[in-house]
What does this fold into?
Amino acid sequence: MKVFVNNKEYSAEPEDTIIELCDKIGVHIPRFCYHKHLSVVASCRMCLVDIEGVKHSQPACSTPLREDMRISTKSEKTKVAQKSSMEFLLINHPLDCPICDQAGECELQDISLEHGDDHSRYMQFKRVVIDKDISPLISTDMTRCIHCSRCVRFGEEISNVKELGLLNRGEDMKIDVFIESSVSSELSGNMIDLCPVGALNNKPYRYTARTWDLRQICGISPHDCIGSNINYHTYNNKIVRAVPSENPDINQTWLSDRDRFGYEGIYSEDRIKKSQMRVDGKLVEIDFDSIPSQVNNLINNNIKKHGKEKIGCLISGQSTSEELFMFQKIFKGLGVSNIDHRTKESNFDYQKNYPLMPSLGCNLKDLDEYENIILIGVNIKTEYPVLSIRLNLATKNKTRVHSFNFKSLDENFDLHCKKIIDHSNIESFLNINNIELDQGKTLIIIGPSVSRSPNQSNILKSISKFSLLIDAKIGFLTESCNSTSGWLLGNVPHRELGGNQSSIIGKNSYQMITNKLPSYILYNLDPEFDFFDKSLVENALESSECNIFFTSYITPMIEKYAHIIIPITTFAEADGSYINIEGTYQTFRPIVQPSKNIYEGWSILNKILKLNNLGDYSVTNIRDELKKSLEGLDFNIPNIDMSNINTSPYIENKISKESYRETNQTDLIVRRSESLNQATKIKNKLSYKNMNNEFKKSHIDITK
Amino acid sequence: MINKLCTETFGLKNPDSLKTYMDKQGYQAWKNIIIEQTPKSKIIEKIKESGLRGKGGAGFLTGLKWSFIPLLDGQKYLVCNSDESEPGTCKDRDILRYNPHSIIEGMLIASYAIGASVAYNYLRGEFIDEQWKVFNHALSEAYNAKLIGKNILSSNITIDIHALIGAGAYIVGEETAMLESIEGKRGMPRIKPPFPAIKGLYGKPTIINNTETLASIPKIMLNKPGWYKSLGVNDTEGMKIFSMSGHVNNPGNFEIALGTPFSELLNLAGGMWNGKNIKAVIPGGSSVPVVKGDIMMQVNMDYDSISEAGSMLGSGGVIVMDESTCMVSVLQRISRFYYSESCGQCTPCREGTGWLYKILTHIILGKGTQNDLHQLERIATQIEGHCICALGDAAAMPVRSFLKNFWSEFEYYVDKKESMVS
It folds into this structure.
């Protein structure tokens, strides 16, 4: 189709609107209410453009293109229309940019520079709106609101949690909540980004820096296996906030609150500042210089004393691929095969038949191509919030989502069916007669609650049988952001780098803990939270002779049982890379410099590696080798067969508290994020059950 | 007055009862359609031919509107717009009160013609005390007589009519805002296109007609082609109810032939109050431009001649003002109405209506300046044509016309800090 913009001819897609075309060809049209991922309301009237043959200027966001349409974005008529909308928007908007956090990145400020007047003709009183405390994460200045309703539409269309709404009408219209502090969805922070003005702002970041003083560095989310792209903003070598970095294949323009506020964890008070060693029963600080050789001696002495099979090496799946690579390089090089990253699991009968690596089975953006998605043992809303956006849009398209969990859980999107399953009845439950499937493709997504179950292998076997029966694909959502690397890079006791079978099969994490080995190496793990059973870990650490902790944080258990503590960087202070669940390999640079005595994890491991003459790597070397071993891998495995796993009998199991985790409990960094903890606290207070109780308390029973 | 359309049962005993309506050939047209199984296209053709125009304000040809509905099968809806809120207009109120069956019959015929099986009558919230009850009673009478519902008169035709009551927002009288309100959402106009005839209520093709339009339909169907056209005088077609209010001796609703001179209408309303001189007339509800009295006396009450006089026929709410009226106060009052009734969705209307009202209040309080008058004119121009719906225009048009016709009076007020007339 042929159209003319400012007298220049362009070919256009017939289904596009004027603004979509202009965005493609690089002609700027000012806008406030329009957002490419939200529905069109054409209410701000800022994008009015002049169309030849049409009496009044038309909104570019809602006007479809016509053959031979002649659009003018610069004509006098367009200018007058846009200028008058601008004037109307500004009459009630406070001109307090110097004290507004949005200044510098405010769309209203930018556009008014071009379309606004240098003085106001409005002499009357301005509107004032009284603010409510809507959330611990979002600060409000509703007097600044220009009623674009992006935040309202986000709740209605994207997150499917209607938190903000329009109240009143006309000039008194305001965006508000009904109950204070009730904005508590796992995606609420996106409304901060969507707000074109300073009405909704980032509360923890408020008044810490001016936007033009910030440095922006792109990072990858370390909190879930989706691998959202994040722009971290730093001020004086400190992360002050995080905003989404657009990636249409992964997180689009969205970010979960966990990704947005999780970084606070790296400034937690229990961060270790210097290496420590136990001398005469007490931990004393030591210089880093002697650390690699000390650690190396400890490891080698233990191997000599007790044998290679008597050392337990555990690493977190949240570690970067570089760290995972170096970790297995050292220990497999020393002949140790007790190496594992699956610390939350307790049943490993499945591991021999497990695919090369856990994978979603399809690309994130293709989820809406499935007619049926069966979720087993996962709460998308709390553990993978960004994914809930994809699933919400998929359900609005054609997808039916079934949710089978060990307890009743709500999701942000519409569930076709929600059932509670039991560990023992899953086989009989997964039956075609029980599940109302639509004609078409089916994807079964197995979540981390299955892997946390002591009957994991039995469940996987049943699911696999069922998937073969209905010809469904199996996908996984993993415990940590980099579990995929954990598998692929040989951080499992039975496989080598690249996924080849090991000749010697070592102990898995559960065996390592229950067998009470004489020495343990824990890398980036929180012994209190990151294991299947806290008391078993405590017993194991207590009876061990030597516990080496590579960690960023000190916990009571580490303090009590550590023989040596080596502080390592977090995701924000090191070069690193993650492989997400669809197999995208993403690298990132250090966002801030670590403090003086903390070194990058992989470089400490490299020093130990060098001492053992097992090699010497730089980040580039590691990545080259990584890529070599990952070459030609297909993450879109058509069908996974785990139906012939040899399983041990069912274990009676009560659903422990750990089986499902709150959004602020999933890893050791978010557990330390002040704002997220605050938000969760308020959210739980506002739960239906509590509100009901409050209500009962405040009302006298008239029947008495 | 010889011919009566919508006002036929007015003044009779029990005007709202089914029996009274039946006595006046009520439901005859509907029964004929049912018995003859008249093709839908034939009905639409007849309405088109009659030249019936929408009586809610815009005056769009009803038959043409109906013909926009897609011919495909599937759910379609008819909505009767009884959210009559335009200041100065009170015709639908009386039709609902005294002749509800004509609306029901009109809705049935229209639903049949467009292929809708469900029709809604949306009444304004303020009608809850009387019209709502009367209409619902009439509806149950018609249901009992098997004129509506399943298998109407054993004919396999099913049409259900539901009455709905609004919550008091003027803006819901805008057709797409009404659809939003019926769906249970905030009453805010939708962006067009798509037009309701393609994508309306619940996303299905929908026709929205005014109460008076639908009430006129039974008689048009009953009579020969050309009958409705012949009702008009002075080269115009059809009839219209005018609601006379303001400084007249006998205010009320008058159903007259289109094309009747305004002077005649004024006489029907008993002439000017206290014998004073006529100063200005708003001929079609408060949102249309005001016309000076002497010009209005030369005008015929039809679409074209009122348009020539610089105004619009609108909804037929004629507000007559005598020489003692302060035009500044009138404009301030009108502006306040649009200020408080703006839905708040789009910027020019949300911010502009408030600005207009605030400046006018400023002037009334004696704080106005010459500049404020130019300011008013400029703001009104900035609102006009830049909004989603017509409310912005409705707020802007009176301001511009009042200033244009009575500039000296506004100037006087600004200079002397008091009204020219008091």
Notes: Chain A touches chain B at residues 40-46, 48, 55-57, 59, 62, 64, 81, 84-85, 87-89, 91-92, 121-125, 146-147, 166, 168-173 (CB under 8 Å). Chain A is about 30% helix and 15% strand. The first strand of chain A starts at residue 2 and ends at 5.
